[in-house]
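re: that chain from earlier
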Amino acid sequence: MHGRRRNWRSLENTAKIFPATSGKKDERVFRISCQLKETVDPVKLQKALDLCVEDFSLFLCVLRVGMFWNYLEETHLRPVVREESRPPCSQIYFRDQKNLLFEVTYYKKRINFETYHALTDGTGAMQFVKSLVFYYLKEKYPEKIQGSPQQVQFDATKAELSEDSFEKYYSDQGKGIKIPKYKAHQLKYRKTEYNTIHLTEGILSVKELLSTAKSYGATLSVYLTAVYLCAIAKDMREKQKKKPVALMIPVNLRNYFPSDSVRNFFGWIDIGYDFSKQSNELEDVIAFTTKFFKEELTPERIAARMNGFMRMEKNPFMRILPLPVKLWGMQVGAMVSSGNGTAVFSNIGKISMPQECRAYIDWFDFYTTTPKMEICACSFEDNLTISFTSCYAESTVEKNFFRMLTEKGTEVRIISWNAEKGGT
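^ sequence. v structure.
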């Protein structure tokens, strides 16, 4: 007797590159954690996870190899909670193996969700984590946590949650728009052993940071972007400043196109600053960044970027190429484009939870593997967590960055310095 044919779905536009480029230097895994105020109960966490995957059944899939593209196929596998034992963001996707593309672990007071990026983006993952934490607290404190997990989820049907929003919103818009590209400065620090990620995390007051940002007439994201650019430049020799410092900044496309999908739906902008020709003063970098964000973060220019990548995928010649040729092409393209950026800054913004849950949570944090250097940021209540990950053994840029913030009156509490030890 033959079993029921399993459902499958193609990878979204930005997700297609992850199977081609993941490897020892970058496993393409990211983590979102929730730090609680009490030690995690693994039995109740497992019950919460069992409930959570019912709401996010599209995450129950494995990555398969097709003739023209990789694709995701539903699976009967179910996640099992375990105590954290490997370094953060260790390999999840194993070629030729049928395994889930995410896992949930715990360590003391911390609940961790890690996922292979081909499964979802930061927004989709955060939807899962918020639901998981809600279910857990409801299991732990049933008399105090009331209501439904729907209050922390998108108000969407399963079809809307599983929508490929790249396909839905693709158009010919923006063909003539020129997008900035740079031959950027590359960091040259000593690499870590065994390709482990170097992690540095700090917690800051949102109120303090906002006050400083407003004193420059800037938003929080603009202020942090400018400080990041300057922190990198502080350690550059004059000869190195001939190339601009360029940051890739992921953009949540749901802010520009109506979508409740928990699949990948993000784009990015690249900001470059030439410290050899432009002012090195922070206030001038902030002014430049403010202007750049206003010009680039518009629906028209964001659509132009998204449609440009979709056009490559839709190219008739590209579509008929067999998968091995496509993978080779994407690997070559990734190597060539790696010179366009110096580092990455990803901010998933403010995380909210129901009032009755807040008393049990200290903070959330978010970080990812990277072949270069990346800042990931998120906030909960007054705690803004800024997480640096890099492939470098030195912490020069991190120290410059946090020192610049403290010099402007923002207190920084360092909560982690080494990802290899796995703890906080």
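Confidence is low (pLDDT under 50) at residues 419-424.
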